[in-house]
Amino acid sequence: VEPNTKLYPAVFVEPTVKEVLQFELGRIKNCLPLTAALFPSLIREERFIPQLPSRLHLQSLVHCHWSRVPNTNIRCQQLKLSDIR
Predict the structure, then answer these.
(1) Residue 60 resides in a domain
(2) d(CA 70, CA 75)
(3) Residues sharing a CB contact under 8 Å with residue 21, sequence separation 6 or more, in sequence order
(4) Rounded to whole angstroms, how far apart are CA atoms 34 and 56?
C-alpha cells in the first residue's frame, strides 16, 4: 500500500433473517455503535427509514451472471426487399 492511501473497511456477512442485518462497529472510543441496518427491499416502504450515521454507507451485493463472448462475431446479411422480389 502506498503512503497516504485511505483504506475503507468492509464487512461481508450472510444474514440470518431475510430483511434485517444487525451488527456493531466495535467498542472503540471514537466509533459509534450501529445496531441495525435495513436491506434495500424494505426501504421502498415508507414506514422503514434507516437511521445510519452520515459517515456510514450500506451497500448490498447482487447476483450477476456473466457469459463469455465468442471470439468471432456472427456475420450479418441484409437484403433489400426490392432484391428479393
Answers:
(1) no
(2) 12
(3) 13, 15, 36, 37, 38, 39
(4) 10
Which DSSP category does 45 fall into? S
Tell me if the pTM is above 0.70: no
How far, in Å, CA of 40 to CA of 59, rounded?
A: 9
In a domain, 29, yes or no: yes
Quick check: 7 and 1 in contact, CB under 8 A? yes
The single-letter code of the amino acid at 20 is V
Q: Which of 34, 37, 35 is nearest to 19 (CA)?
A: 37
CA 23 – CA 30 distance, rounded (Å): 17
Residue 69 lies in a domain: no
Question: Considering the domain boundaries, does residue 34 fall inside one?
Answer: yes
DSSP 67: -
Per residue in 18-39, pLDDT (tens digit) is 666 666 656 666 655 555 455 5
